[in-house]
Design brief:
This protein has about 425 residues and is α/β, with parallel strands linked by helices. The strands form three sheets. A six-stranded parallel sheet has the order 3-2-1-4-5-6, with helices on both faces. Helix 14 links the parallel strand 9 and strand 10. It starts with a strand and ends in a 7-residue tail after the last strand.
Length: about 425
């Protein structure tokens, strides 16, 4: 099948490479000449485990092509995926200008009956707007499909190739048939393709991310209460996660959620609910709780160092919002760093993948260490923000020797409090007893 994916960001690039891996001819189009030039040389604009080899292999075998000629890419396609950005406006609503611009281009340049798929995360009602934008110029039949993505950064390739489910919002038998054929290689193990009406598919994406964000904020609030009453959130998490009605996923407390999806999607769903006169009070509380949680690491550090934060040196392990990605959008590390700088502290950061992104965002505001241990030299405290594997079992004697003060703030509960006490650290974590 001839597929065109417009947009080579996180979603578009993963989708294009994975469709090519199953034998389809895929053209990935983007107006960013620098990005396309890099992709032609197998230089990826994002860090995602396994994606580089997928791109390189399918380019070499001629199944994956990158271009800036969006019009030509549309002309060659049987299915066009719209995977451009939908950044939030100031009011939290999703900016659909890029999506609708692509839709108009599709209408102008389609050369056959076409299936147009919205892959970008878009609010309910977007498919109807896409249909109208294509129809302005279309002279041939076309069908609009909603196909939300459910990719976890750091595991996106596996998530796409081996999905839990494929959600497809369709309004015609033609679109249903084409999409069933396209996704059949990915569901050979029996995972479902769930067909539904288009608005329901659009809502499903937002509802899923809102539910996951809710679980995170709920556990963070439970963790904060555990600290007050002397309970251990790790044990509470195991206790409730063993309940089949709840399950263990997304119950780890931490410094708050970030990234490209949860913050943006929660805001967009809140905006839609308020616009429709059906405010979501629970979800508003989820967002407020997350904003507060992002301050917790600074508060814990301040409770230990107090006024001596001014002029102090703080080491930060982890700059990306989660492990296995270089994405720093809405990262708790940014909130922490901003608070530390405002308090008069200096910061040295380390991250296995996000150093270039950190330099792009922060410039000379902080110092950058080549290794996680280099970040410690002379620092007054270490704050662990991201749970990268290489931070999980460090040399604690080396940490203590490098720090000027034996203070560790653990935002991911990676370390055993009893062991840290044996080493002589002043140690703070999330929700594990009173501190």
């Amino acid at each position: 099948m001839n597929i065109t994916v417009v947009g080579t960001g996180y979603v578009g690039l993963v989708a294009g490479a994975c469709f090519a891996e199953t034998g389809s001819q895929v053209v990935c189009a983007d107006v960013d000449q620098k990005k396309i030039d890099g992709l032609k040389q197998n230089i990826l604009p994002i860090y995602e485990p396994g994606l580089d080899s997928l791109v390189e292999r399918n380019q070499a075998q001629g199944r994956l092509v990158f271009t800036t000629d969006v019009a030509a890419a549309v002309k060659s396609a049987e299915v066009v995926f719209i995977a451009v950005g939908t950044p939030p406006d100031e009011d939290g609503s999703a900016d659909l200008s890029y999506v609708l611009a692509v839709a108009e281009t599709i209408g102008k340049h389609q050369s056959r009956e076409l299936v147009v798929v919205t892959k970008s995360t878009v609010p309910v009602g977007t498919a109807a707007k896409v249909h109208a934008a294509v129809a302005k110029h279309a002279k041939l039949p076309f069908h609009v499909v909603s196909n939300p993505e459910f990719l976890k950064e750091g595991a996106a390739v596996d998530d796409f190739l081996k999905p839990d489910r494929v959600v497809l919002g369709v309004d015609s038998d033609n679109a249903r048939s084409v999409m069933a054929e396209l996704y059949s290689p990915f569901v050979r193990t029996g995972k479902p393709i769930i067909f539904m009406d288009v608005p329901s598919a659009e809502m499903t994406k937002y509802a899923a991310n809102a539910m996951l964000a809710t679980r995170i904020s709920f556990m963070n609030e439970i963790a904060n209460l555990c600290e007050k009453v002397g309970a251990n959130v790790d044990l509470v998490r195991k206790g409730i996660g063993s309940d089949g009605r709840i399950g263990p996923s997304f119950l780890f407390p931490g410094p708050g959620y970030g990234g490209s999806c949860f913050p943006k999607d929660v805001k967009a769903l809140l905006h839609t609910s308020e616009d429709q006169g059906a405010p979501m009070l629970v979800l508003r509380a989820v967002e407020d709780a997350n904003d507060r949680q992002k301050q917790r690491l600074f508060e814990k550090l301040h409770s230990v160092l107090g006024a001596s934060l001014k002029g102090s040196r703080i080491a930060v392990w982890g700059l990306a919002f989660k492990a296995q990605t270089d994405d720093m959008r809405e990262s708790p590390a940014l909130t922490l760093i901003e608070s530390l700088l405002a308090a008069g502290a200096s910061v040295t950061g380390h991250d296995p993948a996000a150093m270039h992104e950190a330099e792009r965002r922060l410039g000379t505001k902080i110092h950058y260490a080549k290794t996680n241990y280099d970040a410690l030299d002379g620092a007054d405290a270490l704050v662990v923000v991201t749970d990268w594997n290489e931070y999980r079992f460090p040399d604690f004697a080396r940490i203590k020797a490098a720090l000027s003060k034996p203070i560790v703030i653990d935002g991911r509960n990676l370390y055993d409090p009893a062991k840290m006490a044996q080493f002589g650290f002043t140690y703070r974590s999330i929700g594990r007893g009173s501190e």
